[in-house]
């Protein structure tokens, strides 16, 4: 018998919604990265939402891998937004000097999808977050 899924990747029109359901070790994070980037190409996705709401910790490798995924997605023609960073995780990231780089963030899935649905010009003017 297999355990619960660690991540799920769902297609919603031109977008992929990738939800991380539990903390991933480094090898699982790399498998997630490879699978997501492969699916971006297979589905010709224009946008990706990575939902990390279930995570109560995000280490530097995980944060770096999320930035790498976003850059790989961009090179494949898809924009990425990270959603659901918990307050304690955000506090720890700031305390440790970690960030999401140029990857936009949003409060939740609804705001992340709204961000991807905005006209391209609004995103290209330098807005980093979907909340404001």
UniProtKB/TrEMBL annotation:
Origin superkingdom: Bacteria
InterPro entries recorded: Bact_StressResp_Reg, STAS_dom, STAS_dom_sf
Pfam families in the record: STAS
Domain STAS span(s) in chain numbering: 5-116
Protein name: RsbT antagonist protein RsbS
């Amino acid at each position: 018998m297999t355990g619960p899924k660690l991540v799920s990747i769902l297609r919603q029109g031109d977008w992929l919604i990738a939800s991380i359901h539990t903390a991933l070790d480094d090898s699982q994070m790399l498998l997630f990265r490879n699978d997501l980037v492969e699916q971006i190409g297979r589905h010709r996705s224009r946008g990706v939402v990575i939902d990390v709401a279930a995570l109560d910790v995000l280490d530097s490798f995980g944060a770096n891998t999320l930035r790498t995924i976003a850059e790989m997605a961009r090179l494949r023609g898809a924009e990425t937004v990270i959603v659901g960073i918990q307050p304690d995780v955000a506090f720890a990231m700031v305390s440790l000097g970690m960030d999401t780089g140029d990857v936009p963030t949003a409060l939740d899935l609804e705001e992340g999808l709204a961000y991807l649905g905005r006209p391209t010009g609004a995103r290209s003017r330098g807005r980093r977050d979907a909340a404001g």
